[in-house]
Specification:
alpha/beta; Rossmann fold; six-stranded mixed β-sheet; 22% strand; binds adenosine-5'-triphosphate; ATP binding; nucleotide-binding; ABC transporter ATP-binding protein
Length: 260
C-alpha cells in the first residue's frame, strides 16, 4: 500500500533518515520500533508530508506521493494523528470531532446564504457521526467535556476519533502509549484492532511499549541510525542479532524494553 524507497532526510550534515526502504501492507497493523533517535518520527513525518525528504521516493498504491503536503494526503486517506491543538482545548470533545475538515456546505459562503436548511441537516448528521465515534471509543461520557480537561489517554482516544470522522485508509500513530495508563492503553488497543478488522484501516504504529506492539502489530519493523535493520514478527525481531546490538548500544533501559 505504501512503499518507501531509499528515503533520506538530512538536517545539515546529520542523517536522521539514512536510506530507509520499507513496505506497509494494506490491512496490516505495522509496528515501527527502534532505539531513541533511530529516525522513526522523522520518517513518519516524511511519509505524512510534514517534512520534505532530502531524497528518495514514497508511493501509495503505486502513486508517487513524495513530498505531498498533509492536506493532499488527508484527501487520499493518509492521516497522521497530532496532539489536539492548544486552540481547540476549550472546545468540547464532540466539537473537536465535528471540526475535522470534511465537505460541509457551511464552509462555503454561498451556501450560508442559500442553503440554511441543508446546513442544519448536515450539522445534525455530523453531530450524530461524532457521537457514534465517541460511542465506538467508549468515551460518550466525555462528549460535552472540554478537550483541555480530559486525561492524556483520553486525548489519545480523541485523536484517534478524529481519524474516524473522515474515510481514513491508513493512519500513522506516534507513541500513543506514552504516559497512558494500562487500562486506557488497552482501550486504545481495542479501538485500533476493531478499526483494522471492521473498517479495514491500515495502521503504522511507533511505540516503545513492547506489550502493546506484541498485542497489535504484525509485522514489526526495527530502525536504527536512520536505516531499517530488520522486519518480521516481534519474536523474530527480538531474536535478531542486529536488533539486540542496536538496543544494547543505547543502554540497559532499552534492552529491557525489547524484552531480552
Ligand atoms: N528538525 C531537526 N533538526 C535537527 N535534528 C533533528 C530534527 N528532528 C530530528 N532530529 C534528529 O534526528 C534524529 C532522529 O530523530 P527522531 O525523532 O526521528 O527519532 P525517533 O526514532 O523517533 O526517536 P524517539 O524514539 O526518541 O522518538 C535524532 O537524533 C534527532 O535529534
Amino acid at each position: 500500500m505504501i512503499d518507501v524507497h531509499e528515503v533520506h532526510k538530512h538536517f545539515g550534515g546529520f542523517h536522521a533518515v539514512d536510506g530507509a526502504t520499507l513496505s506497509i501492507a494494506e490491512g496490516s497493523i505495522t509496528g515501527l520500533i527502534g532505539p531513541n533517535g533511530a529516525g522513526k518520527t522523522t520518517l513518519f513525518n516524511v511519509i505524512a508530508g510534514v517534512l520534505q525528504p532530502t531524497s528518495g521516493k514514497v508511493t501509495m498504491a503505486g502513486e508517487d506521493i513524495t513530498g505531498l503536503p498533509p492536506h493532499d494526503l488527508f484527501h487520499k486517506g493518509l492521516l497522521r494523528t497530532f496532539q489536539i491543538a492548544h486552540e481547540f482545548s476549550s472546545m468540547s470533545c464532540r466539537e473537536n470531532l465535528m471540526m475535522v475538515p470534511g465537505n460541509q456546505s457551511g464552509e462555503k459562503l454561498w451556501n450560508t446564504w442559500f442553503g440554511r436548511k441543508r446546513i442544519a441537516e448536515e450539522e445534525r448528521a455530523l453531530r450524530a457521526k461524532a457521537d457514534a465515534v465517541l460511542d465506538f471509543l467508549t468515551i460518550s461520557h466525555l462528549a460535552d467535556q472540554k478537550a483541555g480537561e480530559i486525561s492524556g489517554g483520553q486525548k489519545k482516544l480523541l485523536e484517534l476519533g478524529r481519524t474516524m470522522m473522515v474515510d481514513a485508509k491508513i493512519v500513522f500513530l506516534d507513541e500513543v502509549g506514552a504516559g497512558v495508563n494500562r487500562t486506557l492503553l488497552n482501550t486504545i488497543g481495542d479501538a485500533i484492532l476493531r478499526l483494522n478488522k471492521e473498517r479495514g484501516y491500515t495502521f503504522v504504529v511507533i511505540e516503545h511499549d513492547m506489550d502493546f506492539i506484541e498485542r497489535l502489530c504484525d509485522p514489526v519493523i526495527c530502525m536504527a541510525e536512520g536505516k531499517v535493520l530488520a522486519e518480521g514478527t516481534l519474536a523474530e525481531i527480538k531474536a535478531n542479532e542486529h536488533v539486540i546490538e542496536a538496543y544494547l548500544g543505547t543502554g540497559l533501559k532499552h534492552r529491557d524494553k525489547v524484552g531480552t
